[in-house]
Design a protein that fits this description.
Blueprint lengths: L1 E4 L5 H9 L3 H8 L8 H8 L6 E8 L2 E10 L4 E8 L8 H15 L4 E6 L4 H8 L5 E6 L2 E7 L11
Parallel strand pairs: 4-5
Antiparallel strand pairs: 1-2, 2-3, 3-4, 5-7, 6-7
Amino acid sequence: MGIRPISPDDAPALQAFHGALSDASIYLRYFAPHPELSEADVRRLTRVDYHDRVALIALDGGEIVGVGRFDRLDENCAEVAFLVRDDRQGRGIGSALLQRLVDAALDRGISQVVAEVLPQNGRMMTVFAHRGLPLRRRYEDGVVRLVMDLYRAPDAKMSQ
């Protein structure tokens, strides 16, 4: 499995990925039924500037098995989201996407990420909790808002 930035050329594979998702996974990600990605959705997801918007895909055998992204909300904060294909959930793909998104956020001067998660999406909350960074949770209007403060661990080579 590999993770790389998404590109407009990934549009057909992104459509196929979305089409393979269960209704439950789609609902947990979008908070509503979303059976198809519109052309506008595909453009928004595949055309990012890699400064204020970053999107990554996890690939296995040329197929997209996970998608992650962040959108900068202000100078220091970004909203992060990711989705893993049903048959690949629980295998560390979400954690790997989150790690890469955190690294990308830090590289762009972002010091905090937020995510809005439905209370029944325990897997997503577990991915954030196991990241090991300070995490605050707030329940409001039927949604759990996760706020994670970011920092880069000191490089061992630099401390020598």
